[in-house]
Amino acid sequence: MLFLLIFVNALSKEDAEILRNVHESCIKETSVDPEIASKAIKGEYVDDEKLKEHLLCSNKKLGFIDDDGNIIEDVTVTKLVKHFPNEQLVRSAVQKCAIKQDTPVETAFQFVKCMRSLAPKDMNLDSFF
């Protein structure tokens, strides 16, 4: 899902498949309500613990967050820049949003919401966040 954190170019079939597999795997692992997860993909976030677990799971599998709940900024930027060519914009957003919260699940939740809020309106983030 995620995810998180964006498209000017379409995802390759391989990348789309990876994201789909991560999303489906994390739905099974976290037991998040699929409807809540689907709404989150569209940017509608509810304060739901299972959704937060799902976002953490997805971000960890994508390499954006480590086991301690820290945003891995360089890896996140490197992966996102493959799909969003404005590295300065991506790096700035990641730095602004990479704020560790009280728990890893809250960090993932706030990171995803922040990344989406900073994205230009014409970017399609649905596949990442």
Automatic annotation (TrEMBL):
Cellular component annotations (GO), alphabetically ordered: extracellular region
InterPro entries on file: PBP/GOBP (IPR006170), PBP_GOBP_sf (IPR036728)
Subcellular location: Secreted
Residue ranges of the TM segments: none
Top-rank taxon: Eukaryota
Signal peptide range in chain numbering: 1-16
Protein name: Uncharacterized protein
Alphabetic keyword roster: Secreted, Signal
Annotated Pfam families: PBP_GOBP (PF01395)
Protein family per UniProt: Belongs to the PBP/GOBP family.
